[in-house]
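Exam revision sheet. Question 4 asks you to relate a sequence to its structure. Input first:
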Amino acid sequence: MAEFIKLYNENPNEKDINRVVEVLRRGGLIIYPTDTVYGLGCDITNTKALEKIARIKGVKLEKANFSFVCSDLKNLSDYVKQIDTSTFKLLKRTLPGPYTFIMQGNNNLPKDFKKKKTVGIRVPDNLIARTIVEKLGNPIVSTSIYDEDDVIEYTTDPELIFEKWQNKVDLVIDGGYGDNVASTVIDLSGDAPKVLREGKGDISII
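Answer key, structure tokens:
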């Protein structure tokens, strides 16, 4: 059964953050809060953990469209091709924030993503998520957790999330009620920004 840890976004407890990072390093799956919906995540360098998430989502790992959750913009050049000035300004203006940016991947992508032409980049406006990534030392791969209910697309109550997911993951973080609107997805891999999904992030800023 999964561990259940309460963390406060304003001041995440260091001991508990270290525990989460420990779980990720040994290939565990976590459910954690973001600035939008709760996410299911693992260490991007751990193949077995990535395969587990792909199985849960019912997709093959090489076909999966996961996002990379980063703590800030400084590591972007590790994973994406050179960013021009206007793109960088857009990222600076919107991140941290409720956006996922699709960008062209480079040759340094972790081995399980080598065949990917593009990757989704997230820097959530949530201190818990960003602190975990910072402590881990590399991004976590992330995907939203959907609800089977036709009416409620995303579960927002961490205790209900724990009830549903306790036997599928290793750790669930209670970071307070989540949102029920996903991130806005913007494709930056072409000549001009293109909105693929309108979510919580304001598209007029683009």
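Marking note for examiners. The chain has a mean pLDDT of 92.
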